[in-house]
Fold:
Amino acid sequence: MRFALAPEQRDFAGSLRKICETAGTPNIVRSWSGGDHRGGRGLIRQLAGAGALGLIVDERYGGFGATPVDLVVACVEFGRAAVPGPLVETAAVIPALLQALPDPAPAQRWLPALAEGTVLGTIGPAADQPALDADTAEVVLAVDGDRLSAAHRIGPIRSVDAARRLFSTAADETVAEGDGVRAAAAAAFDAGVLAVAAQTLGAGRALLDTSVSYVKQRRQFGKPIGQYQAVKHHLANVLIGLEMAEPLLYRAALSVAGDDPDIRARDVSAAKVACADAAYRAARTALQVHGAIGYTAEFDLSLWLTKVMALRTAWGTGDFHRGRVAAALRAERGAA
Amino acid sequence: MDLDFDSGAEEFRAEVREFLRANVPATPLPSMDTRAGFEAHRAWERTMAEARLSVVAWPAEFGGRDASLLEWVLFEEEYYAAGAPGRVSQNGIFLLAPTLFEHGSPEQLGRILPRMARGDDIWAQAWSEPEAGSDLAGIRSTARRTTGGWILDGQKTWSSRAAYADWAFGLFRSDPDAERHRGLTYVMFPLTADGVTVRPIPQLDGEPGFAELFLDSVFVPDRDVIGEPHNGWQVAMATSSNERGLSLRSPGRFTATARRLLDLWRETADPADTAARNAVVDCWIGAEAYRLATWGTVTRLAEGGKLGAESSVNKVFWSDLDIGLHETALDLLGAAAERSGPWTDGYLFSLAGPIYAGTNEIQRNIVAERLLGLPR
Structure:
């Protein structure tokens, strides 16, 4: 039993964090929101160069054949830096989907370029989710029941987070059909839920860090506001929520690596609920302790606030995921 | 990263499970906060001691079996899952013993621990005072130097288990001129000593779970002082992070309560009631989070880390979780929630969680100042 990241995984996180810091994500996010994807695509290629996009892609498709835990490590950093783009789709959902199909041809066709970061992929609708960033992704897929198709975008649909450019899709050629698609889509959905939970937790961590530095320097009534107990208790609650959500996320990653689809669904949903709640509390608290400056769009905090508000319901609402956990727990009776 | 246990740990777990299956009383023991219940719980401690399962993490020479931290957590998981009795020896085993292991003399260890392991001596805490709750440094009860020992005077309160216990441990001000945190001495004394008056205080549930202690010129020999005189604060700190963190509230307790809550939900709730469903799921998620966080801590400690301010994170979390688990159960029970029973007992007990072991307000200050680096 060793329930902790390995030193190499921590180093990997550190190297991704450094790439994002050097790139300066806030400007990239603002350009992306306006439809200029150049900066973002450049950053994503750099992250792919560090190995972050092909983690769960098999080596035979040009990936690293790493574990879902490694995927979580990368996605937490994507969220921490608010990296824009269809990263959950490119790095988690499409690899999980294509590699679970009985026919290897679609994986051979698309995964090498996705793992390389030169091509982005998106998919919709997944969990009633429109396709994210279908205006820049070269690979646009759509799942409808037991049919997987290549698709084209219709839209756009405005998100609360301007950096999330959403589109409806219309199916074109069929890529795969049958029960195999249904099972593959279920596995891919859980990989997406895991990745988005990780991204959400990372954004929550960033919001807490920003809030802590702000309350240390912002003075009112002659002292830093971080000295007031009311402010301290808000931020302590945020830390407690994030700290207690994180172990659920890693356990969900272990369950995604395992072979029981019921446990997998239960655990990714539990992680999604806990990470979304913790990050949402981080966002609400960040806005509260920043005061009016936090409410402005020109202050960078807004980029993380709107991201968390969008991610809270993306890939399934809290109610949806609690329902999935409940279904698994009801079914466990007798088994336990 | 994994959550798999090696075969040695699995064997240990199987042995514990078998012992509990064969020995846990079929009908729950009466409350340990009654005289009869207290003695029944003492007998249960002896039963466990005979199987060398009362203090598994201690060295063999004191009645334990040198179990690793990982095995200890497995033991606790099994213990709570089996619905085994609450530990009347808890204060001694989880609060005093860690302090003795860190600061006690070999003579103290040899004299005190084996009796504690067998339930021969049951220990009460004597921390709080009427004017010093979470502010331990505000202690006023005094220890005055005399030949061969110390004279204790003053008053302690909210002393858990003190109504029927044999001994107590706590802090006394030994140097009135020193700063608040200095000049305190950590002392053990028998509750039957001359000059000790115990006044049991009924708790919300009506039973005397704690007591007030009045000390009037109580003599304590030097051998019952732990660590150096006047250094009691440092000695006590070793105990208090233990109390908030791993030891006192093992995850098994909440995992077991969550399991009972799930049973109640499956038996009583309308599956279409999504509010009830969501509340139950949140409780289960919280109990799982705490269990998994504990395995993370176990990993860190096994690799040489120390339990520090993060035990305050745990304390706030588990105390809120415990209340949430019981409130959810009472909501499921509806009007029946008023009737006395395990859920109402557990609920009343859970309400003390955010108060004892340092209030949650104090814990949040510790989290903010020591973990987030906010200014004092």
